[in-house]
Design brief:
This protein is α+β, with helices and mostly antiparallel strands. It folds into 4 domains: about 120 residues, PAS domain (Beta-Lactamase, 2-Layer Sandwich), CATH 3.30.450.20; about 100 residues, Beta-Lactamase (2-Layer Sandwich); about 70 residues; about 160 residues, Heat Shock Protein 90 (2-Layer Sandwich). The chain is built from 14 helices and 17 strands. The strands form 4 sheets. The protein has a 5-stranded antiparallel β-sheet with strand order 2-1-5-4-3, sandwiched between helices. A 5-stranded antiparallel β-sheet has the order 7-6-10-9-8. A hairpin with a 5-residue loop joins β16 and β17. α9 packs antiparallel against α10, α10 runs parallel beside α14 and α13 packs antiparallel against α14. The protein starts with a helix and ends in a 13-residue tail after the last strand.
Length: about 525
């Protein structure tokens, strides 16, 4: 211990007990900062004993970031310069924790020379920590407020805040754009007087009173489509969502509005166009029936008189006249078949059926019975195996398989006995078959194959088009509507149909139909 240190301790011996029992942290340092004395509070807070700190420099215990400032502060005190009354310095404890001490440093001088400095500090770690937390929370709140203001001001929707008396408290820029009012023109005004059409104002007031009285809000937190008024008095459609909030401690309501006028008018126009199209389709179907029936009668008469002329023994026809008669008769027959096809197509397109259980084994058996004459003439062999029972229209499914099987018979090769098979398989996954919005997963694949003249695979899509024909009329009869009708029937059942084949190598028609029918009604398959 130096002479100065000893002299100082001797001088302060009288006050040592007082210092040791003080709550504040007290230290005595020589002008260079070497520790002369620290009290018990200093040792307790920083966790160093008197022996551990003796002859150490005070700056060894100050954190690196505060060391320069504290050193400068002490130098000013030692040199008699004016310094801050209080200073906050961070120290490191023995276990390397940071503590904050706030206090002052004074100097004891003799003849203008500093003998030692006295430091009295208080542990303000908790206060500094709390202040830091408050600062962080304040910064976070400011950031949130800034983000909220950004959101409100640059939101793609109009945002309006009203109080419980329906007075407008907030009106964002998008509301200015949509409704035409500047914020300063509407804030403080009653909402119903600004943008609500007269016929909705009573309902708005009643809803507000009901909510304030009972807490029930029929339109709260729901998006509704309603009309609003702009500054020019134009009424237009908006999507409106209202929720409750608080402003300055008082309940308020925040409304989000989006201009959907164009979309709503387009939807209304589309619905009207759809309705008109349905009416037009119904009229066209009726027209097709009427015209077709009216056209049939004169064609029947043409065919009847042709038969009479041919049967009249007094009419001696030349060879060329016989050819002409035959051509007229063939043309009239084809025209009659085309009219029948149009009627059939019209009835299918207009069919509104209720799904019922249909055993496809019975359907195919009935088709074979009805085609018995053609089957016998061609010595055809038709087999079917394991067909399911599905949901659908019995009449339309009969027409489907009638057209497929009769086509197979019609397009048989002249030198080959027709062999036609109808088989099925259960499919568990409908993926890839169709895009219909159905919930069922059970599908059946039914395959109708033959060994006829077939067709080029290049025409696999063409054959399903209206009046599509791949072969000459004089060689193969038909209207060109058969496969188009098949496609229409399958689609009405929410299924698919595809064709594959090769020239003189037969044709294969693959039909996929839902087990439960278009309306999803469950039906039990039969063996």
């Amino acid at each position: 211990m130096t002479r100065i240190h000893k002299h100082t301790i001797d001088q302060l011996e009288t006050f040592k007990d007082l210092f040791d029992n003080a709550n504040d942290l007290i230290h005595l340092l020589d002008p260079d900062g070497r520790i002369i004395y620290v009290n018990n509070a200093w040792q307790k807070v920083l966790q160093f004993s008197q022996e551990e700190i003796e002859q150490k420099v005070i700056y060894d215990f100050v954190t690196e970031e505060d060391r320069p400032a504290f050193k400068k502060y002490r130098e000013q005190i030692v040199n008699g310069q004016t310094a801050e009354n209080h200073i906050v310095v961070s120290f490191l404890t023995k276990d390397n924790r940071k503590v904050y001490l706030e206090g002052t440093v004074t100097t004891k001088s003799v003849h203008g020379m500093s003998l030692y400095t006295r430091g009295i500090f208080r542990d303000v770690t908790k206060r500094i920590y709390n202040e830091e937390q408050v600062r962080k929370m304040t910064d976070a709140l400011r950031e949130r407020e800034s983000n909220l203001n950004q959101l409100l001001h640059f939101a793609p929707d109009a945002i309006i805040v009203i109080d419980t008396s329906s007075r407008i408290q907030f009106w964002n820029p998008k509301a200015e754009t949509i409704f035409g009012y500047k914020s300063e023109q509407v804030v403080g005004r009653i909402l119903t007087e600004v943008i609500i059409p007269p016929r909705y104002r009573d309902a708005h007031d009643a809803g507000m009173k009901r909510f304030l009285a009972t807490g029930e809000g029929h339109v709260l937190n729901k998006t509704i489509e309603i009309s609003a008024l702009d500054k020019a008095g134009r009424e237009f459609f908006v999507a409106l969502t209202i929720s409750t909030t608080f402003q300055n401690g008082e309940r308020a309501f925040i409304a989000f509005l989006r201009d959907i006028d164009t979309a709503m008018k387009d939807a209304i126009e589309l619905a009207e166009s759809k309705r008109q199209l349905e009416v037009s389709n119904q009229r066209l179907e009726q027209f097709a029936h009427v015209i077709s029936h009216d056209m049939k009668e004169p064609i029947r008469k043409i065919m009847m008189f042709l038969d009479r002329l041919r049967a009249d023994e007094n009419n001696e026809l030349t060879a060329s006249s016989s050819v002409y008669f035959s051509k007229i008769n063939n043309s009239a027959t084809r025209l009659m078949r085309m009219i029948d096809g149009i009627l059939e197509y019209s009835s299918i397109k207009g069919e509104r059926f209720v799904s019922e259980p249909v055993d496809l084994n019975e359907v195919v058996d009935n088709v074979i019975d009805d085609l018995e004459v053609m089957v016998n003439e061609k010595h055809a062999v038709i087999t079917r195996s394991g067909l399911p029972a599905i949901g659908g229209s019995k009449l339309l499914l009969y027409q489907l398989f009638y057209n497929l099987i009769s086509n197979a018979l019609k397009f048989a090769r002249t030198d080959v006995k027709p062999v036609i098979s109808v088989t099925s398989a259960k499919l568990d996954d409908k993926a890839g078959f169709n895009n219909f919005a159905t919930t069922q997963t059970g599908y059946y694949q039914i395959v109708v194959s033959d060994n006829g003249i077939g067709f080029s695979q290049n025409y696999a899509q063409e054959i399903f088009k209206t009046f599509s024909r791949l072969h000459a009329r004089d060689k193969y009869e038909g209207t060109g509507l058969g496969l188009f009708l098949c496609k229409t029937i399958v689609e009405k059942h929410h299924g698919t149909i595809a064709a594959s084949g090769s020239e003189n190598g037969g044709a294969i028609f693959t039909v996929v139909l839902p087990e439960n029918g278009p309306n999803g009604t469950k039906h039990t398959s039969k063996p």
